[in-house]
Amino acid sequence: MTVLSPDALEARLREIGAERYHNRHPFHRALHDGALNRMQVQAWALNRYYYQASIPVKDATLLARLPTAELRREWRRRLEDHDGDAPGTGGIARWLKLTDGLGLSRRYVESLEGMLPATGFAVEAYVHFVGERSVLAAIASSLTELFSPTIISERVSGMLRHYNFISEETLAYFAPRLTQAPRDSDFALAYVRANARTPEQQKEVIDALLFKCNVLWSMLDALQHVYMEGHPAPGAFRGDGTPGAFSA
Known about the structure:
The protein is mostly helical and about 250 residues long.
């Protein structure tokens, strides 16, 4: 592999997003197009909660490894975005309002009792990746945020259009992300462009983004397998009163 210019590296990263970001996944298409029933939407929100709740854990892991005050100040904003600066604020609290609005018990959601095993493995792999790989790779793994405004716009417009049990208030999580995600991805992209200077570093950056896309894709694979294709997972949310599951 030869050294890419910063522009060429960015172009490669954007190609990965165009090919592999999870807005292309069949489960997301079904969610956006109104092809899911209420229980399937609940299952998506319930499983996604673990990812949302783990984002500040991931960011705190990276924050402790950042070598300068400038970088730490920048990354602290991400913690506040998701944890909030007071009880009931921040992204996690807004996601719980989404699950509340879908009729899920908050205690049940936070307990993770109905979460798919694959969701847990994927999210924990991401947290471990950020803690164990280089700072450059850890920052590069966040570059899926380059593509999130597109999926947010599709998701919000599609869900409001197709589901009568969804309201703008229910989807309040997403509005701040339309400004937070571009701010964060602009910083991460600038860092990667400036610091991925060798073929090895550039491969590390590319592989990190591929890994993160795989994490998000695999979570939807599991949802599709269980909730669209009908392969039950023991103990997972079913929404029908089955022991070990939750009746919405």
